[in-house]
Amino acid sequence: MVVQIQLLSDAEVDAVFHALADATRRDIVARVIEREQSVSSLAAGYAMSFAAVQKHVAVLERASLVAKSRQGREQIVRADPAAIARVRVLLEQYETLWRHRAARIDAILAEDPDQ
């Protein structure tokens, strides 16, 4: 089975890198990849206010890295595996670009200057 992964637009790439530029937000993503959690549960793990954690979750939500739903009085945060897969594809494209550039530099350095 072939899974088609839709690439990110420039605006989505900007939102993802903005969201992941913060250590707390990267930690939130890692925690909700492991298991979905309420915003209250997430907030208990940080030395910051509940409102601050909510703002971090909102940034991640705008980047589509997490999704939030309501269960009773709690807001449950879960990772969006499809969005994370799209980010992985983007990073693999950058890795491929740099590997090709490094290989080209190696080839240039290996050329015999007398020929």
Automatic annotation (TrEMBL):
<feature type="domain" description="HTH arsR-type">
    <location>
        <begin position="5"/>
        <end position="99"/>
    </location>
</feature>
<dbReference type="InterPro" id="IPR036388">
    <property type="entry name" value="WH-like_DNA-bd_sf"/>
</dbReference>
<dbReference type="InterPro" id="IPR036390">
    <property type="entry name" value="WH_DNA-bd_sf"/>
</dbReference>
<dbReference type="InterPro" id="IPR001845">
    <property type="entry name" value="HTH_ArsR_DNA-bd_dom"/>
</dbReference>
<dbReference type="InterPro" id="IPR011991">
    <property type="entry name" value="ArsR-like_HTH"/>
</dbReference>
<protein>
    <submittedName>
        <fullName>Metalloregulator ArsR/SmtB family transcription factor</fullName>
    </submittedName>
</protein>
